[in-house]
Amino acid sequence: MMKLDRTRYFPVGYEPEQELQWTLFGLIASTLCSLIFPVRYFQELQNLYRYEQKTGEIISIASFPELIRFCFVGFWITALLLLIFAAFHYFYHFQGSHSIYLMRRLPGRWELARRCLAFPLAGIAACALAAGLLLVIYAAIYVFVTPERFLHPSYGGSVWRSLIGGPVV
Asked: 127-141: per-residue pLDDT in tens?
């Protein structure tokens, strides 16, 4: 198996190990923080069962947008951190003998951009992919696990609007 040459995607002379660890930590922590949705969801469902048992009245579960609120903040923070890394990569070329002028004169026109942006953009794409995948999983849990009698009257629309990023009612 061929190993990826990381040096092509970071500034010359830069040691990326710490940055890779921080990014991995951010992705894992963001995923763990998003697990607040299943906790909220199952607490809400349990409360509905208790309420129905006590009073005999059926009420609907909280809407999907209410339950996923702030679940993906960790991914936004990680993406912001990656943008800061991109700026750091650019300014790294101004330090000491890491000449920005040499990087601009290289025959490969996009060499500087690739070395500054490749890893941060790949990390942001990983954040978006992970958040999107979790959002779809959480929407499926909401729609398919919730008994029909407890579903919010506008559950279909609110789930769909949450998935496509539209206004939530």
From this structure: 999 999 999 999 889
Query: pLDDT at position 169, please?
Result: 47
Give the whole-angstrom CA distance, residue 166 versus residue 154. 14
How far apart are alpha carbons 144 and 134 in whole angstroms?
A: 15
Each residue's pLDDT tens digit, 19-53: 889 999 999 999 999 999 999 999 999 988 888 88
At 14, is the secondary structure helix, strand, or coil? coil
- pTM more than 0.85: no
CA distance 19 to 12: 15
Q: Name, in order, each residue with C-beta under 8 angstroms of 159's C-beta and a sequence gap of 6 or more.
A: 64, 139, 142, 143
What is the C-alpha separation between 53 and 68, in angstroms, rounded?
26
Tokens of 47: 């409360």
